[in-house]
Input
Amino acid sequence: MKRNSVRIIVILGVISIAGIMGIQIYWIKKAFNIESRKFQQTVFVALNEVAADLAAFHHITLPEENLVKQISSNYYVVNVNSVIDANMLEFFLKSDLAKRKIHTDFEYAIYDCQQNKMMYGNYINVLDKTVDNRKTVLPTYNEYTYYFGVNFPNQTGYLIDNMEIWIYSTVFLLLVSAFFAYALFIILEQKRFSEMQRDFINNLTHEFKTPISTIAISSNVLSEDKITEDKVRYKNYVNIIRSENERLNTQVEKVLQLNKLERGATNLKLEQVELVAILNEVVANFEIKVKEKNGRFELSVPEHPIEIIADRHHLTNIIYNILDNALKYSKEIPIIHACVELSQDIVYLKIRDEGLGIPKEYQQRVFEKFFRVPTGNKHDVKGFGIGLSYVKSVVQAHKWKILLKSEVNKGTEIVIIMPLSNGKS
Output
């Protein structure tokens, strides 16, 4: 899939999700407002009935206008124009609100004109019927002389509970949006993997092209009739074929071993090994490449042996891979530092170069399979992008830890943290 096509799909998908969510929020808000107005109208009717019941009980006449006044979204005052019996008020509130199917908690208070304050009545738990000792200070209303106030503290939650269809539709919409977002994520991931695999195949082709060509040329030379007469030349070409064949086999084995490690199909052959000896062996073979570029290798290791439990083959490979990366991404004159440090029962294997370094945005990705740090139009660094991925897989298989520290144009340091052997394999 072309990059522009993916970009258009992502943009349209994000716009679609944002549009749908915006419309849903608009309709939920509108539905909530409708439910709120419906609740307020029902409360007005119920409180009018409460006032009428109180008037009939006390044989008084109610005001003709402004009987019920809404002070806030959930607080109402009712003008009864007479002294109020608290017990009868609570009885009528419970019965008339229940008759109008208003099943939510409420609290009431009666205005005391002599003290000029609201005398708290009671908090009514409609659903669980438990006693609630809270006492809210309800505000007074200066236009009435004899009145009571009713507050619905859980009005918002009650209204939301009555919007079940909207809640279900919103949850369903969120699930659909999440699935759609996940699908977009999968598309982007597949595109990224596709690009990484394409780059891997290109790198694999270029990496194999040189040894295959060298083997082909050497084979043609060896097929000449008189080549056996020149023993030195004959042996040189045989060694070239052997060397290039080992190079190809090493690259193929690296890919296969990485795949096995990721699938957990390779059983590590754990044994007690001497880390310093293995490091010295790898460095001795590797130091030749560094000196060919007029560079230097600085090695600092303890004089006494450092025993760890590891797979010797894989340990050797990861040290070689780290050193190979340090050489590849060094400057014109490579300077590589390697050291082994011991702190209590923890061993630190540190390999540092003074090369190009890795930008911060790529440091978390260098251990990903097939990933290579972009180098613009520069293509002189060979590789498949699996070296550090293999290193991390081996480290994880051993249950070790690996750290990477890097700064652009100052170099990169890789630290492998492993436990010291206790003498048991």
